[in-house]
Design goal:
The protein is of the alpha/beta class and 240 residues long. The protein has two domains: 115 residues, Nucleotidyltransferase, domain 5; 97 residues, ATPase, nucleotide binding domain (Nucleotidyltransferase, domain 5, 2-Layer Sandwich), CATH 3.30.420.40. The chain has seven helices and ten strands. The strands form two sheets. Strands 3-2-1-4-5 form a five-stranded mixed sheet, with helices on both faces. Helix 3 crosses helix 7. It is found in: Cytoplasm. InterPro entries: ATPase_NBD, Gcp-like_dom, T6A_TsaB.
């Protein structure tokens, strides 16, 4: 019996779903910055119906657990929990920064990636990854090792950390963070790419080793990753 995985992501202005069924991948991607809650469920219905699959035939749900916008990550977490509870499905959370690294590998065969998503407020969500091929009883899989751990920080802190590590070989910069801040755009610390936002399509590859290694959780254990401990917004009159 082949594995069936349904992936979804609403963590950024992108809204995407992907399905692995009978060994084939299909996906839908939209830019829906303020309409994730309206679009994600119809997109899920559409991709399932296109393949003639019901939610109860899915083996596991995969979702982008962050980092990303507070609202987007919260929406993705809530939708995932609701679907998983309703269909009694396990959940595989994946890093949105690692998802873009996986896209770099699948599109360009790049195995060293600097990932940065614009976090607003003069900060980025940032991590540095290196691909490692791991053999198991289920075959060979690609896993991403963090050379610089996921964090939210100022662009200047990104440059400081990158200057302290020995970056041999070719590196690809992915994500919206590089173009969002001039201090990052001007520094040539890696080749710039057209991979700007995470897509559920590349979550499927990350989920495979997690599934075979039983690295999944049940719906009530699903937790978002915001990286920020507090969400800062502009104070309005009368708001504390």
């Amino acid at each position: 019996m082949s594995l069936t995985l349904l992936a979804l992501d609403t963590s950024t202005e992108a809204c995407s779903v992907a399905l692995l069924y009978n060994g084939e991948k299909t996906h839908l991607d939209e830019v829906a910055q303020r309409s994730h809650t309206k679009r994600i469920l119809p997109m899920i219905d559409e991709i399932l119906s296109q393949s003639g699959v019901s939610l109860h035939q899915v083996d596991a749900l995969v979702f982008g657990r962050g980092p990303g916008s507070f609202t987007g990550v919260r929406v993705g977490t809530g939708i995932t929990q609701g679907l998983a509870l309703g269909a009694d499905l396990p959940v595989i959370p994946v890093s949105n920064l690692a998802v873009m690294a996986q896209a770099a590998y699948e599109l360009y065969q790049i195995e060293q990636v600097n990932a940065a998503i614009d976090a607003r407020m003069n900060e980025v969500y940032f991590a540095q990854f290196k691909a490692e091929k791991v053999r198991s009883n289920f075959g060979e899989f690609l896993q991403w090792r963090e050379l610089i751990s996921e964090q939210v920080c100022a662009p200047e802190r990104v440059l400081e950390q990158l200057s302290q590590v020995q970056n041999l070989g070719e590196w690809l910069n992915v994500g919206t963070g590089w173009a969002a801040y001039e201090v990052l755009a001007q520094k040539q610390l890696g080749k710039m790419s057209d991979i700007q936002l995470p897509s559920a399509l590349y979550m499927l590859s990350l989920a495979l080793p997690a599934w075979y290694n039983k690295q999944y959780v049940n719906a009530v254990e699903v937790e978002p990753v915001y990286l920020r401990n507090e969400v800062t917004w502009k104070k309005l009159p009368g708001r504390e």
